[in-house]
Amino acid sequence: MTKHYGGPGGRAVLEGAGGQIATGEFVVVVGRSGSGKSTLLNLLGGLDRPTAGTVHFAGESLFELPDAAMTRLRRRRMGVIFQSYNLIDTLTVAENLRLPLALNALPEDGLVGQWLARVGLSDYEDAWPDRLSGGEQQRVAVARALIHGPDLILADEPTGNLDLDNARAVVELLDDLCRRYGRTLVMVTHSREVAGRADRLLTIRDARLATLETGP
Ligand SMILES: Nc1ncnc2c1ncn2[C@@H]1O[C@H](COP(=O)(O)OP(=O)(O)OP(=O)(O)O)[C@@H](O)[C@H]1O
Ligand SMILES: [Mg+2]
């Protein structure tokens, strides 16, 4: 897969990037600022189109799907977490969590309460997101990314705005939940400590992807 900004003759951000990510794997993407980490995540999530090549996900070639089918697939089978939490401040915590269920026409079935308990925020159903600490907001974002049972979680520097303790807590939670429920997790991070938890490291250097095996 190749991504050039500014058309086929434009600057190469990713050149011939290829590979597979296994179900349930925790992959960390590293590389210097501007190397293309967010671009890679956006391509994996179908939010941006490659200049050449494609992404296969759930048996489909993402960029060959009609827009509506692509949106449906993304909504149903992916969860996204951003550095800046991206909760909707005009909705309560519980309402934020109901969104992915509503968008996918899934029944609530006590899921909101269950997921708030899993991220340690049981008493926060009626809280407003902008009244929560950064760590709390990111835990809500973790619950929102997982509540509809997606196969793939994409997280772009999810701890970038958190202090060390909160960053650790959020990564541990995300890693534990993804492993417990067999979700695939692809995370961009600058933290060596976080990278150390991953099954595999993908390094972007000079628009190329290098794989580094980690783990025990
Ligand atoms: N929409 C765009 N149009 C043109 N160039 C872009 C666009 N988005 C990103 N770029 C460029 O592509 C390169 C890779 O950007 P990207 O955001 O993927 O980097 P990154 O590795 O996520 O960096 P950071 O660690 O700072 O978040 C950068 O040089 C950036 O300026
Ligand atoms: Mg980025």
Description:
The chain is α/β, with parallel strands linked by helices. The chain has one domain (3-86, 132-213): P-loop containing nucleotide triphosphate hydrolases (Rossmann fold, 3-Layer(aba) Sandwich). Helix content is 33%, strand content 19%. A 6-stranded mixed sheet has the order 6-7-8-3-9-10, with helices on both faces. The protein has a two-stranded antiparallel ribbon with strand order 1-2. Helix 6 (164-180) links the parallel strand 7 (152-156) and strand 8 (184-188). 35% of the residues are buried. Adenosine-5'-triphosphate is lined by residues 5, 13, 31, 33-39.
Q: What's the layout of helices and strands?
A:
Blueprint: E1 3-5, E2 11-14, E3 26-30, H1 37-44, E4 56-57, E5 60-61, H2 67-77, E6 78-81, H3 93-103, H4 111-118, H5 134-146, E7 152-156, H6 164-180, E8 184-188, H7 192-195, E9 200-205, E10 208-213
Parallel strand pairs: 3-8, 3-9, 6-7, 7-8
Antiparallel strand pairs: 1-2, 4-5, 9-10
Helix pairs in contact: 3-5, 5-6
Bound molecules: adenosine-5'-triphosphate (ATP) and magnesium ion.
Level of helix content? 25-40%
Count of folded domains? 1
Low-confidence stretches: none
Number of helices: 7
The CATH architecture can be named as 3-Layer(aba) Sandwich
Hey, roughly how much beta strand do the residues contain? 15-25%
Task: Supply the CATH class.
Answer: Alpha Beta
Order of helices and strands: EEEHEEHEHHHEHEHEE
Q: Gap between N and C termini, in Å?
A: 30 Å
Provide tags for this entry.
alpha/beta, Rossmann fold, 216 residues, binds adenosine-5'-triphosphate, 7 helices, single chain, globular, binds magnesium ion, two-stranded antiparallel ribbon, 6-stranded mixed β-sheet, 10 strands
